[in-house]
Amino acid sequence: MSASQDTVYQATCTAPVNIAVVKYWGKRDTSLILPTNSSLSVTLSQDHLRSLTTARCITSSTSTSTSPRDRLWLNGDEEDINEGGRTARCLAEMRSLRQKIEADNSSLPKLSSHPLHIASENNFPTAAGLASSASGLSALIATLARLYDLEAHGVSQSDLSRIARQGSGSACRSMFGGYVAWEQGERADGADSVAVEVAPASHWPDLHALILVVSDKKKGTPSTAGMQRTVATSALLQHRIKHVVPERMDRISRAIRERDFDQFALETMADSNQFHAVCLDTVPPIFYLNDVSRAVIQLVTELNRASGRAVAAYTYDAGPNAVLYVQEKDVKLVLDVVLQYFPQSAASFPDPFATGVAPTGSKERV
Ligand code: ADP
Ligand code: DP6
Ligand code: CO
């Protein structure tokens, strides 16, 4: 038979990053990815930081002789899909949903029995502490859901978020827009460890996220390995889990509901500081912040002190790059101050005021 009888099915999706204001750091189940504490994040606009993923499935009546396998390219380079690994698990979960639908609808093409070719690209530094695993795994699941037409057959966003969680914990939050909590849950099967919307983006539209790219290098300690080491060695993590995060989740959820920026900023910066303190309490210690990150912390602290109110809230994921949450009325002031103290940033991004609809991102290199 000729190759012309092959049918190509293809889907493309983008997914945004989310930047946590209460950080997830620690797993109680490394296989299902169940966290040791709840977390809360803001999903940024896809106009700025996003993963773009295309998945392709070729059904061929002649393709039975070889043993084709799933393949994945990230930013142009092929990545291994390790057997039993997290990506493989996500693909298996998605296939199994498609298989059930095919079993009930014999007229549908049998996509589940053919290999997938997936290509993804991030338009921002990968593995540098800007949540590429969140947007990346979320884009992967969204793309496969579209390819397999899952939502038309009753698979919910929440079901997809649960699968994305098994690819990278933070990815479960990127399946929703706006302000999103990931409830840690209690069950061993993870059924109640789910992302839920605290408020839509439209609830607090004048909140902006400014991304200060300190370094685009791949981090030395990937998040997965770093948090495992913390769970195994840090007493401070146990204190954080039991005595800090539960109350902070309540307070920051209330601050979001009431659009109380002062309280939001206070909790955000305190949580970032404690997360990095927990990294330092890990044996051997993990250093994600560098001198420039710390200079940005000092700058924001001084700006807030001199202003007599919270003008900006800094937060750092597992990397040196800063995210500043700022209200719309203060975006120009904060960017002016950043450019004054880090003048080289203006050269890389000549239009630093290009912010879109909030919550949104604007990139500065410092
Ligand atoms: P980050 O701080 O960027 O989230 P992590 O250490 O958590 O860093 O995860 C980085 C890893 O996430 C990458 O090495 C890669 O395996 C995966 N990843 C990143 N982007 C994508 C993508 N677009 N598609 C699939 N996997 C991705
Ligand atoms: C510091 O979700 O990247 O960004 O579940 O092992 O893939 P895995 O880790 P990941 O960890 C994110 C850690 C963080 C905080 C956060 O996003 O909540
Ligand atoms: Co990550």
Automatic annotation (TrEMBL):
Catalytic activity, reaction form: (R)-5-diphosphomevalonate + ATP = isopentenyl diphosphate + ADP + phosphate + CO2
Domain Diphosphomevalonate decarboxylase-like N-terminal, first and last residues per copy: 15-195
EC annotation from Swiss-Prot or TrEMBL: 4.1.1.33
GO biological process, one term: isopentenyl diphosphate biosynthetic process, mevalonate pathway
All copies of domain Mvd1 C-terminal, residue ranges: 209-366
Any GO molecular function: diphosphomevalonate decarboxylase activity
UniProt pathway: Isoprenoid biosynthesis; isopentenyl diphosphate biosynthesis via mevalonate pathway; isopentenyl diphosphate from (R)-mevalonate: step 3/3
InterPro entries tied to this protein: GHMP_kinase_C_sf, Mev_decarb, Mev_diP_decarb, MVD-like_N, Mvd1_C, Ribosomal_Su5_D2-typ_SF, Ribsml_uS5_D2-typ_fold_subgr
GO cellular component, one term: cytosol
Keyword annotations of the record: ATP-binding, Lipid biosynthesis, Lipid metabolism, Lyase, Nucleotide-binding, Steroid biosynthesis, Steroid metabolism, Sterol biosynthesis, Sterol metabolism
Family per similarity comment: Belongs to the diphosphomevalonate decarboxylase family.
PANTHER family linked to this entry: DIPHOSPHOMEVALONATE DECARBOXYLASE
Protein name: Diphosphomevalonate decarboxylase
Source organism per UniProt: Rhodotorula graminis (strain WP1)
